[in-house]
Design brief:
The chain is mostly beta strands. Helix content is about 10%, strand content about 40%. It is built from two helices and ten strands, in the order αββββββββββα. The strands form two sheets. Strands 1, 2, 3, 5, 6, 7, 8 and 9 form an eight-stranded antiparallel beta sheet that branches. A two-stranded antiparallel sheet has the order 4-10. It starts with a helix and ends with a helix.
C-alpha cells in the first residue's frame, strides 16, 4: 500500500526547485513545464506544497486551471467556503477571482497549474492567508 508521500515521489513530472518569494507560507517547489506560452497563451507549472503550506491570496487576470495530482489540499475563493482537494480533482478559476490554494496540515499537495490567457497579465499577489483563515477551513 502506497502512502501519500510515496505517491508524490512517483509523479511523472519533476518536483522542481524551491520557490524563493514571499507568496508562500513555507516551502513549495515549482517545475515550469511550459514557460513561453505565447503560441498557446498559457503557462503550465508543476507545483508541490509541503504539508501545511499555502500561497497568498491572489488572482489571475486570465484565469487558471488546477489539475490535482497527489496528496491533499485546499482551494478557497474569497468570501466562500474552502474545498478539500485530492488526486484527480480539477479546479476552474475564473479571471480575477481572488483565491488561495495549498496543502492540508498532514499531507504534501501537488497540482499542475495552468495559467490561461496570460496575455492579459500575470498573477496579482495580495495579502498572505492568515493562520486563522487557514485553521478555519479545517473545522
Amino acid at each position: 500500500m502506497n502512502t501519500q508521500n510515496e505517491n508524490i515521489s512517483q509523479q511523472p513530472f519533476p518536483k522542481g526547485s524551491p520557490l524563493e518569494n514571499d507568496n508562500f507560507s513555507g516551502t513549495a517547489w515549482l517545475e515550469m513545464l511550459m514557460e513561453n506560452g505565447k503560441d498557446f497563451d498559457i503557462t503550465i507549472g508543476n507545483v508541490t506544497f509541503e504539508a501545511g503550506v499555502r500561497n497568498s491570496w491572489h488572482s489571475h487576470p486570465g484565469g487558471q486551471i488546477l489539475l490535482c495530482t497527489a496528496g491533499e489540499g485546499y482551494y478557497q475563493e474569497k468570501g466562500k467556503s474552502a474545498q478539500k482537494l485530492k488526486n484527480g480533482d480539477v479546479v476552474e478559476i475564473q479571471p480575477d477571482i481572488i483565491h488561495w490554494h495549498g496543502a492540508t496540515p498532514n499531507s504534501e499537495f501537488t497540482h499542475i497549474a495552468i495559467s490561461t490567457c496570460i496575455s492579459k497579465g500575470s498573477a496579482v499577489w495580495l495579502s498572505p492567508v492568515t493562520d486563522e483563515e487557514y485553521l478555519a477551513v479545517q473545522q
